[in-house]
Amino acid sequence: MYRIKAKGLCLNTSILIFMSVITLPLMAAPPPGGGGAGGGTQEQITDLDERVSVIESQDLDNRINTAQLAAESAFVHADIVAEDVRIIAHDALAVAGDASTRITNLENQDLDNRITTAQSVADEAHLVAVDARAQVTVLGGENLPTRVSAIESLNLESRLSDLESLSQPNRVITVSAHGASPADNGLALIDAVNMITSSHPAPSATEPYLILIYPGNYDLGSSILNLSSFVSLKGFDKSNTVIYSTVRVANVSNSSVESLTLRSPLDTGSSAVNVSTIARFKDVNIEGRWGISGTGTTVEVIHSTIKSHFKCFTFVAKITMDNSECEGLSFFDTHGGDIKVSNSVIGGNWVVFDGPSTNIEIRNSKVTGSITPTNVNPSPTQNITIAITNSDINTLKVGFPSLTVDLLFSRVSSLEQTDGNLFMSHSIIGSLNAPTGTGNYVNSQLGSPNITGGSITCPFSYDENYQLLSGVSC
Questions:
Q1: 95-99, 120-124, 271-275: which has the minimum mean pLDDT?
Q2: Residue 463: inside a domain
Q3: 66 has a pLDDT exceeding 60
Q4: CA distance 384 to 402
Q5: Is residue 383 part of a domain?
Q6: Into how many domains does the chain fold?
Q7: Among the listed ranges 154-158, 159-163, 419-423, 429-433, which one has the minimum average pLDDT value?
Q8: Residue 25 pLDDT exceeds 50
């Protein structure tokens, strides 16, 4: 429709222009016979011819055609643009409608409540992950098949039943590391411990307390945490929950410490932890000049590491150590009691002092130093019995009359027997020096055997070259 109108408009305009050019001068000329013998008329005709020639020379038809083509192209382009605009408008309306629907749906979903619920689930998942991480730190290390076999042989069902029968804490106090500094965090922890001291009801077997410590650094300065009976400490994991002091970190009595690090200076001070009565440490790092001390006490250490400058244990009467490590110059000295070590690594020397009726059991473990039992006050009633099974010992010394050692399925790099009684079976000795003592070395490899005195027999044993030793008497 626009093209027809435009074209008609262009043609009509050209006709009008042409007619105006021709008609107006003719209308202005005088009629024939007037105006002085017709001279003016001739001039007008001549002028008219010239003007017609000029118009003809302008090629109006070509210009008109060009204008017509330009107009047609413009209207075609206008149609295309209009169609594009219609498409964009349609899409915009569709997007707007979809956005409106989505906004309505979102407004109906109660996002605040969903975000709060998701945060709660995330927090709970984090706690589970942290606890799981603390549980999986003990399966690696050396001699994994042996350690796995030892774990499988444990009476886990009975131990689980025992744990489930223990009283659970009725009162839980949380301490977080939201202070401006580790010192502020330490003050908050001290306040929590002191608050329990004056609380009602007081901590007891039926009303135990638990202080739950969130990840962070807690600097006690020169203060000590004095945990009364039935008050336990528990962190989130021993790598990220650290309590340290310039002196002793804690006095623990009839309670437990779990999933954290207790750190005091290695070069000065006393033991990192002092125990009275009984204490249980699980998934704990203990660092100090001495590790754990406590005369006449009972200590259980599980999945933990003790790093000391001198002794891991000092004057502790009874020790149970499982899946743990002692890093120190010596393992312990004791005044008597039973010691059980399983699936563990003992660094430095293992020294037993003055041990009346002490029974020591080492299973599936490694001792990188020397086991050197010493009875300071010899007496027929003061006996030490050591049973070593499926373990790797660097040096073992059997050197006083009331000492009895049973060595089964183990390896000892260097063994020296100058006294006491030693029974050995299915073991490997790198170097043996037994100038005296009583013993029966059965089905074992005895490297460089020096058996010169005492009452020692070697049935079915052989030397480092796999040559049977001559005779039952070695």
A1: 120-124
A2: no
A3: yes
A4: 6
A5: no
A6: 1
A7: 159-163
A8: no
